[in-house]
């Protein structure tokens, strides 16, 4: 049984690694001039999106290091103002990768009173990181598709983890796309984004 758990952890970490590699490519194109631009996340500027992505990555680091994540940390300090926050988010992503690849065993992570398996935490993190990587690129006016195989895997997982209770709070309503659209478009549409819009 332990061998199967560790295989699941390795698969989750590998998925997270591929998502981070994709997102880092998007972070490289961010310039300070782009920070005030709108994003595919309605009502969010690129600056706010980068702050959110940085917080998500910090939570992934916390999960790997302490096996616990505080949903609303009382002492959370605001992020320091920097000329290009994408650089610090990129550093955080690199730290996440190191933290998760160093894990040797699948131990549960305590999140808001619930215990969640490490592979599930890694998989949910992979969805968030990759999709926000797409958001960042679109905000900068770049076309950077999510790699097809990665998009297919993330879509399968998103359909398990994202429920009607998550809308409209965490995700906008699902967007319609043709059945023949690529996996990336189905992933983005499922998570409330227009694959052809901004």
Automatic annotation (TrEMBL):
Protein name stated in the entry: TIGR03086 family protein
Gene Ontology molecular function: any one: metal ion binding
NCBIfam families per record: maleylpyruvate isomerase family mycothiol-dependent enzyme, TIGR03086 family metal-binding protein
InterPro entries assigned: CHP03086 (IPR017520), DinB/YfiT-like (IPR034660), Maleyloyr_isom (IPR017517), MDMPI_metal-binding (IPR024344)
Lineage: Bacteria, Bacillati, Actinomycetota, Actinomycetes, Streptosporangiales
Signal peptide residues on this chain, from the entry's feature table: none
Domain Mycothiol-dependent maleylpyruvate isomerase metal-binding positions: 27-137
Top-level lineage group: Bacteria
Pfam family, any one: MDMPI_N
Naturally occurring in which organism (per UniProt): Nonomuraea mesophila
